[in-house]
Amino acid sequence: MTTATLETPSQAKRAKQKVMLIEGNEAAALGVALARPDMVAVYPITPQSSLVEHVAKLIADGRMDADIVDAEGEHSVLSVLQGAALAGGRTYTATCGPGLAFMFEPYFRTSGMRPPIVMSIVTRDGITPQSVWGGHQDAMTVREVGWVQVYCETVQEVLDTTIMAFKIAEHHDVMLPVNVCLDGNYLSYGTSRVELPDQAEVDAFMGVKNVNWHVALDPLRPMAVDPLTGGSGGKGPSTFVRYRKGQCRGMQNSLRVIEEVHEEWAQRFGRRFAPLVEEYRLDGADYAIMTLGSMTGAAKDAIDEARDAGKRVGLIKLKTFSPFPVEALLKSMKKIQALGVVDRSVGFRWNCGPMYQETMGALYRLGGASGSFLPSMSFIGGLAGADITVGHFHRVIEATEKLLSSPAPTEPIWLNERD
Fold first, then answer.
1. Which of the four pLDDT bands, split at 50, 70 and 90, describes residue 3?
2. Which pTM was predicted?
3. What are the residues whose beta carbons fall under 8 Å from the beta carbon of 178, sequence distance 6 or more?
4. Which CATH class, in words, describes the domain spanning 4-215+245-272?
5. Fold of the domain spanning 277-414
6. Rounded distance, CA 407 to CA 213, Å?
């Protein structure tokens, strides 16, 4: 199972939750509606299109009380929301792939302005070669721009995390935009049973709306927003440094806030998701594999089969990727002697997966002082919508097990190269 059901909420509260059979894109749209945004701006792009279509229909049917802007492109989508957020509105959008690339300039600007915009990335592989299929390349490419990024494993997690994202973004110690990443095709179009929370319970969870408490466009209180800073004279450089330092502080604060919000969600609604790092059958394991997103279900099945066969292997799943949860990850990696990291995207500079590259940075803290590093290796699979099957994960397990007695290969293993 990917989540553990708690016993703390009353049966009455659980009974209020409507059971539905829906795809991941609709689940994200329903999560947005439950969070009660003031404005959404949209532009469709595969495999995100049905998500914003669901949002538009919810507004048209009167089930979501929000203004909607059908912009002419993704650059305008995010620019519109910057103004709405600065005016004190709760805001939302979604994109992926070339759409995310098109909005890069306002995407970069958003994190520096600190508006708590929530945006779903229905992850898609990069081009060229041409691909409209799922992968993590788009979200990974912008991982250093200053948005909080969380990845979902299931359709239920998409719905619940979308709601939680607003509370995380708007927390006074964070005030940063948040990406909720769901795998294109596998989660966006994948249909699953979900429990839809009761609106009154979500309202109680969200609390009184107090968006952009530190800055809001108000004609009675005029101010400059995003003034020109930097340069060689005056106070410009120190102002710029103060802004950047504040962004980094907000990112690090978000690790604590993500844990707190997930715990409150679990207590209220009875569904617990690991906020930063999930361990699966890691106790007693000699080595482990690491996953991100929807691939984790097949990986857990492979772990179960390997355990039944006597292999001492476990799994580590990242939910929060940005900021990278170094301390939480180190606690898990201290339990094992070797690690195989499976990415659904490519880190071109280092000839490995981006998650593997980030993990190497965390491992330096684990063994850098003593010169003893955890043997590890990079696997890349699931590009352009390809399946990462249980069989693929058995290959990952077998190769990772060899690290216990053999040197790690210098090249990544490409899982779908001959499939």
1. very low
2. 0.94
3. 116, 117, 118, 119, 147, 148, 149, 150, 165, 166, 168, 169
4. alpha beta
5. Rossmann fold (3.40.50)
6. 54
